[in-house]
Amino acid sequence: MEKISALIEKTLKTKPVVYVTRDIERALGLNPLGGYFAISRVSGYGKEIKSKFPENTLLVNAEQENGASSSALLCSESTKKFIKEKNAAVLVFQNSSKIESCSAENGFELLNNSSAVSKKIEEKASQYEWLGDLRGLLPKTDIMALKSAKFAGKPFILQYNHAHTGEGTMLIKTALALTELSEKFPERLVRISDFVSGPVFTVNAVVSGNEVLCGNVSYQITGIAGFTDNEFSTIGNDWSLPLKILSAEEIKNIKDIAIRVGQKMMRENWRGLFGIDAVMDGQTRKIYLLEINARQPASTTFESILQKQSGEGASVFESHIAALLKLPAEKYPIQGIPGGAQIVFRKQHRHDTQKPDLEKMKNDLESRGFAVIAYETDGYNKELLRIQSKSAIMDSHNQLGDAGKIISECLKS
């Protein structure tokens, strides 16, 4: 049987795909070659990619044309012209009603799943309702208006209905903290969950046909000081650590949760990538479902790069593309990896007065063998640098290993 990469390449010759994204890194699970194209805003990293793949990369000065969001990029005149010239289908990182409207108005075939379905599965309140008989996978959870929340004497997790990368997640430790929040936003819908103390793990998975294909379990790096101000902000993934701290049975249990979620998503006619986060109780080692990302998870690209370096199996991004193109991705096993990690350096409050020398940091990190992607943003807690390693960054839960400590030191320069 031919490799999945050959099947995709052959299909793209007659059905090209253009990936439109604000951050070009999201599109790079495949190299922009043949019938696969990437469109992104003008950026330093975008220019690096265009220099390597000039015929298949378009950089749009979106801020001048229509703004810098993915929907604005898609609606820009340069993008519309490019897509029509290539007679290509469109793929984005995260779908939205604006993207769907723009695609419909211009006659584009949009490969992504419905934004309404994504929203229903991903947002905190509707996700709880949608899970139905799978709610038992969660820690004890309730949905309510913030004014109805009560502090019962033990810490709990409070999450706003719509948030990502941990920015809408808070650990409520006192009645006073809850009161201050509820007085500000009494009617805001929130999810209240028991606090489970322990490591968080992620798995990227693909729905194709009647199968759910699981990628490699990674440890979710969260809230480490020096990388972010937010204790719940996701700052990276380490695929090496689970192989060290989890048993084969525990890894299987995490994947089984993803499979059960994916099987439910099938009933929504879902195709392609999604991701789950799961937390392990540090005392009992029981594993709970925390989140569902009804879209391409941010760790997809680097996991796919590690997979292509590790063997002949399918990468999660290849499986994603194949599933969206209605190719039989389920016939191609996903490639395992022996490790690897990435960590994100986010903009912090201290940077308002002490601007980081990103160019020096990038040079220092690259001189030590790390791959580094620089981002151009002014938003608080947004990505400034993405640092990638072929080996582990973490030594144990919340503890940087040797490579992680080197990265941390470079970020102090």
Mean pLDDT: 95
Low-confidence residue ranges: none
Distance between the termini: 51 Å
CATH architecture of the largest domain: 2-Layer Sandwich
Write down the Rg.
21 Å
CATH-assigned homologous superfamily of the largest domain? ATP-grasp fold, B domain
CATH topology of the largest domain: D-amino Acid Aminotransferase, Chain A, domain 1
Note the main sheet.
9 strands, antiparallel
| Share of β-strand residues | 15-25%
Total strands: the figure is 19
Which percent bin holds the helix content?
25-40%
CATH class of the largest domain: Alpha Beta
Molecular shape = globular
The number of distinct structural domains comes to: 3
Counting helices, strands and paired strands, the structural category is alpha+beta
The total count of helices amounts to 15
Notable characteristics:
single chain, Rossmann fold, Dna Ligase, domain 1, 3 domains, nine-stranded antiparallel β-sheet, four-stranded parallel β-sheet, 15 helices, 19 strands
